[in-house]
Amino acid sequence: QQKQVKLQLAWLFNGAAAGEIVALKKGFFAEKGLDVEILPGGPNSNTVQETLSGVAQIATAYAPEIMYAANQGLPIKTFGAAFQKAPLTFYSLGESNIKSVADWKGKRIGASQGATAQIKVVLDHNGMKLDDITFIQAQIPGLLQGQVDVVASWPTNVAQNVPIVQNPAGYNTQSIWDNGLQFQSNYYIARTDLIGSDSDMLVKFLEACDKGWAYAADHPEEAIDMVASMSSAIEKDKELASLKVIVSDFIYTDETREHGFANISKDRWNATLQTYAKIGEIKPELTADDVFDGSILAAAQRTKR
Amino acid sequence: MSVDRSIETAAPLPRIWSILPGPEVMRALGMAVLGLSLTLVLWQLVVTLFGVPSYLVPAPTDVAGALSRDLPLLVEAAVPTITEAFLGFLLGNTVALLVAVSFVYNKVIEEMFYPVAILVKTIPIVAIAPVLKIILGNGIEPKIVIAALICFFPTLVNSVRGFRAVNPQLLELMHVLSASKTEVFLRIRIYSALPYIFSALKISVTMCVLGAIVGEWIGANQGIGYLLLQSMFDFNAPRLFATILTASVIAITGFAIVSMLEKWVIRWDPGAAM
Amino acid sequence: MSVDRSIETAAPLPRIWSILPGPEVMRALGMAVLGLSLTLVLWQLVVTLFGVPSYLVPAPTDVAGALSRDLPLLVEAAVPTITEAFLGFLLGNTVALLVAVSFVYNKVIEEMFYPVAILVKTIPIVAIAPVLKIILGNGIEPKIVIAALICFFPTLVNSVRGFRAVNPQLLELMHVLSASKTEVFLRIRIYSALPYIFSALKISVTMCVLGAIVGEWIGANQGIGYLLLQSMFDFNAPRLFATILTASVIAITGFAIVSMLEKWVIRWDPGAAM
Amino acid sequence: MMATIAASGATRSGDAHSGDVRLSQARNAIEIDNVAVTFGGSSRAVRAIDNVSLTVREGEFVSLIGHSGCGKSTLLRTIADIIAPTEGKVAIFGGTPAAARASRTFSMVFQQSVLMPWAKVIDNVRLPFEVGGANPKAGNFMDPHEALKLVELEGFEDALPSELSGGMRQRVSIARALVTRPKVLLMDEPFGALDELVRDTLNVELLRIWKQSGMTIVFVTHSLHEAVFLSQRVVVMSRRPSRIGGILEIDLPEERDLALKDAPELGHHVARLRDMLGAG
Amino acid sequence: MMATIAASGATRSGDAHSGDVRLSQARNAIEIDNVAVTFGGSSRAVRAIDNVSLTVREGEFVSLIGHSGCGKSTLLRTIADIIAPTEGKVAIFGGTPAAARASRTFSMVFQQSVLMPWAKVIDNVRLPFEVGGANPKAGNFMDPHEALKLVELEGFEDALPSELSGGMRQRVSIARALVTRPKVLLMDEPFGALDELVRDTLNVELLRIWKQSGMTIVFVTHSLHEAVFLSQRVVVMSRRPSRIGGILEIDLPEERDLALKDAPELGHHVARLRDMLGAG
Ligand SMILES: Nc1ncnc2c1ncn2[C@@H]1O[C@H](COP(=O)(O)OP(=O)(O)OP(=O)(O)O)[C@@H](O)[C@H]1O
Ligand SMILES: Nc1ncnc2c1ncn2[C@@H]1O[C@H](COP(=O)(O)OP(=O)(O)OP(=O)(O)O)[C@@H](O)[C@H]1O
Ligand SMILES: Cc1ncc(C[n+]2csc(CCO)c2C)c(N)n1
Ligand SMILES: [Mg+2]
Ligand SMILES: [Mg+2]
């Protein structure tokens, strides 16, 4: 008897969910007795609310929204993090010669509205304030058209970054990871009560995802074919490039080599929460226990690579 | 100052109504193609002259390339979106008409619930998307409801207006005949409202396409909305614009169908009183 | 079957038109408050009975708390949004009326460019947000343009319809008087179209508020749209709903103003022919 | 003024309360008691009619004449329960006009033809069959085609109103009023848009229907000849605010044919009415 | 059929080509040459008028009579350039109707009052001053208040059309037609909704204006008395498809007053017309 589970993704089916899709397509979930349905997300999707309200038992989510949810006392927790590092990186064109966050002073920094807090933390880390820069909501075209000097993007989204990467004068980057904000990404979240009551299912889920990502890492072309079978508009060549970056730089890091797939440490969460508390985004009394339950990671057999 | 010759419509030429593509329809089609072509030429000119980069706005030629390359993809994506839009159109307009009828039947209901309708209209979809997903699941239903929500309001406003824009002398006649409110509705108000209702349907037929697209943004792996997001994410501007064009073709087709229906239904002169 | 008593409007009671709040306006206001209150009660009941969690849909009492707590914030946020919505309303409707006039002047223009108008209408804002930002910068302008884009279409469709819904006998009269097209427009078509135009304005006055909000989503650090996003981000559902309510109040107020203007402008019976 | 007229020859006071034994033998079809109507217009309040009292017996044919704008239509619309009188009251067969309306006791022909522009001629005529709970009574009704034949419009069943001439539209309205075989017929200048020949035909036809059916007819006209030719009594309304200026009893033989139209007796009555109108 | 009538007494053929020396002394105001109009309706094509030729001299007063629906309005609308004839052509003072229209050579009074419901009475009357490039010629025009006085509507300047009775609306239309002092006046049953007294007054007034101004008037009416009283010639139209059934020359004195309305000479002409109508 298969156990029915729904996984709500934060975004459309693409390379960032390759491991989960492979686990589904290769039957890794089924092997564990799970009948998983993966639901695509989108800009009008809110996975924290959807998990809370039972649209899905498990979802992927990003660090900021998890912290804000915890700040409101909402009963969800992370039990793993597919991306070991949050990829958010600030790009500038070579012409503008912005080599470090210190060079941001007086510059126009473009990002989505939601990235304001991250920028604040990065600035804070470099002894600056939001007033020292001009924040503009902008995307890559804004950088290329000279509306901003720096723009936030994810290096994993290879297709998006093509115009920057191909800039004749080169480009410079500052990632949040290297600039004082070390949180992870594509966290697996579930309701707190579910983590308590059905840890067995979550463990099996995590083990299947682990297997899926490992398979995707070893067979990227096949993985992308599987993604494309669920997402007809995927451009396989671009997505393959993305997947390779995702696997090599974000799924598998030193930390997974040591602790295994999807690892989260309390210390990292505590540090992250502190940076957000410091700039007043969340209550200072929040701790890793409010956002993280380590029992699933501890119980799961995880690949170390 | 040129003299108004629009009076020519009163000239005694035989008019042929038909919903089958007659010469009139072919002409309209030709004109539409001409208008769109002109727009494309202008667009191409602007893109070329000002050197607009293709990641921002691709040239029509690029879009044409994407169109021909991705045609199967676009057609495949159009199917669910058309379904959602059509069902949303039916649902939204039916509800709007029913609410409008209740408003016109009872002024108190109108005064009480018109503001509520506006309130519902001002709720951004993103704010209630999770609620819709819980109640309606992940299938086609929430998309239909979003399309319906989006096209509900124009039809409500127009049909309330239309149901009231009745020749007062006809109301007097019906009064003398002791017609019930329902009879006045079925025999007089509906006809008086038809020009308004068709006008509203023309608005909502385009809105419901947009509604279905926005609906797909709460989570989908098919449909025009999905394709739009994926193309945006991939920075595939030609495909993005080809997708937008596909949405437009759906909307324009819907508009044309409603227009033909209108011609077919309203055969009297809506400005005339007899 | 109750008999239609709507004929009572033909009874010889003195009607007082006024845009100042008279007893009629006060009554309408009271009814609106009643209707909204009823909705709130229902909402509270549903939330309480079904145990709807407050992160999804907060109870009206929670929202009321947020409203009173955040009132200064909400008022402050309302100012830029109202400005954008109002200017967008002016811009969108002016352009729509001008285009409608050109359509009615020249059938060929209509046949060629109605499809183009639909195309423009079906472009999702997010898809052209980067272009808008580059052309219009990051100030209030792109928000105004988005609000205008969103309310353009209903007014276009309704006024094209309205300009054509003219009593054919009046057209004959103007023809005999050799009136130019412009004169027919200014003296006949505008009046015939007014009921349609006001209906469209009622639709677009609510749409332009939503348009300004969506405009703020592509880049703003103030306004209702900003507050909405921020509240959503923070999972502050009570504040989110308080913000939506604020948007509704703006829209309802706009709607009420347009309705009063309509009463004040259209003093004749729009269904009547003399 | 009213006194002047009442004193003169064949006229008598319009005051229904001054009971006339000869007239009160039949039932009263319509009793108008001290009715006044005031309109509140955009510019000023207009008292259209004032202090009008009139009793119409069952089976009587009464015409209303008066200057344009004096309030004839207003009075007829008050009887038909379209306008609520500002003062006074109206009774139809002792009941309210609303009850009479509901029971299809009367039909009304409006001054301007009021047709549904979207409906075929035959559907316009059929309308009274199809609304107001008329179906149960429909057994008594006239065949719509027959009604159209009465007004000489056979062959136009399927035309739209916009395809008809002014007079043809007016005749469709008349057919619609006749089709229910009402006990009371209220007609507001029904033949105003018709040529004399059709008008003559319809006059004779109307008299025939009236005789045959025992209908009560209140007939507004601006043709004095027509009023005299058709009516048993002609009510002359004075200028605004309109009262009843006088009533002329038409003591012509019951059997009337077209020859009468040119007869000197009729001319005499017409001249009387013209005097009364001039005095009003 | 036309031959029968042409042979009889005072009538003559309506064929404008059979030039009559007596009539051709004045300029021709209106020449209608073999005009036919066919309507393509929703159900069938209707030939409303067929083969109509008629010449109206400058300064002439011609009435059109004929059965309801025979095509009188259609003919008038063809002259006024509202309907393009399916066959044949119309000339006004030798030019096209369109040119005549543009130069304000004619005014038209429609069968149904056509008023702007949103405009005050005075603004409705003033309309011809304000459109069609009329301003330069306005010096010649009548004061709108004077025009309203002519139709006995002083005091109603600021009323809306919905506040007027049917006859009052009709009179506003007449005032609007007169206000431009046109050389040709086309009137489609203008007095149809008026009581006889007002109608008599306006008849006399119209004759006075006609005499004084040297206007050419084409007048559609369904009152044979009115046609005879007003006109120099009465054109009788036959049944649909309508042709000119005959023309009656009215050899009454130029000076006509109300007394004539009851005179036997007039009655004689009316009887003639009735015969012609019956034959048509
Ligand atoms: N728009 C139209 N479409 C079809 N048929 C029409 C149209 N207008 C008029 N007719 C037909 O043309 C004929 C002549 O109409 P017209 O209005 O000229 O008559 P008329 O002589 O003025 O009648 P009346 O005295 O009743 O006003 C009628 O039979 C009518 O049915
Ligand atoms: N809705 C209204 N508002 C204001 N005044 C009105 C209204 N209806 C009628 N009147 C006025 O009431 C008076 C009587 O109008 P009514 O229509 O009864 O006249 P009538 O005798 O039928 O005239 P006619 O013979 O011209 O039809 C007129 O002076 C008119 O101006
Ligand atoms: C500049 C930039 N900002 C935010 C996101 C967030 N986002 C949008 S879609 C998506 C899913 C990626 O697989 C994510 C994380 C991004 N990608 N790039
Ligand atoms: Mg009247
Ligand atoms: Mg006519």
UniProtKB/TrEMBL annotation, chains B, C:
Q: Which terms under GO biological process does the entry name? A: transmembrane transport
Mode of membrane association: Multi-pass membrane protein
Annotated TM spans: 28-52, 85-105, 112-132, 144-163, 196-220, 240-261
Which SUPFAM superfamilies does the protein's record reference?
A: MetI-like (SSF161098)
Subcellular locations according to the entry: Cell membrane
* Gene3D superfamilies documented for this protein: MetI-like
Q: Which residues form the ABC transmembrane type-1 domain?
A: 74-262
What is one cellular component GO term in this UniProt entry? Answer: plasma membrane
What's one Pfam family the UniProt record gives for this protein? BPD_transp_1
- Which residues are the signal sequence here? none
The entry's keywords: Cell membrane, Membrane, Transmembrane, Transmembrane helix, Transport
Q: Entry's InterPro entries?
A: MetI-like, MetI-like_sf
Highest taxon above the source species: Bacteria
Q: Which family does it belong to?
A: Belongs to the binding-protein-dependent transport system permease family.
What PANTHER family does UniProt report for this protein, alphabetically? ABC TRANSPORTER PERMEASE PROTEIN HI_0355-RELATED (PTHR30151:SF20), ALKANE SULFONATE ABC TRANSPORTER-RELATED, MEMBRANE SUBUNIT (PTHR30151)
Q: What is this protein called?
A: ABC transporter permease
Source organism: Aminobacter aminovorans
From TrEMBL, chains D, E:
Residue span, ABC transporter domain: 30-264
Is this entry keyworded Protein biosynthesis? no
The UniProt keywords, alphabetically, are: ATP-binding, Nucleotide-binding, Transport
Q: Which domain of life is it from?
A: Bacteria
Query: GO MF annotations for this entry?
Result: ATP binding
Presence of the UniProt keyword Repeat in the record: no
Please name the InterPro entries in this protein's record.
AAA+_ATPase, ABC_transporter-like_ATP-bd, ABC_transporter-like_CS, ABC_transporter_ATP-bind, P-loop_NTPase
What PANTHER family does the entry give?
A: ALIPHATIC SULFONATES IMPORT ATP-BINDING PROTEIN SSUB, TAURINE IMPORT ATP-BINDING PROTEIN-RELATED
What the record says about family reads: Belongs to the ABC transporter superfamily.
Q: What is this protein called?
A: NitT/TauT family transport system ATP-binding protein
Q: What is the lineage of its organism?
A: Bacteria, Pseudomonadati, Pseudomonadota, Alphaproteobacteria, Hyphomicrobiales
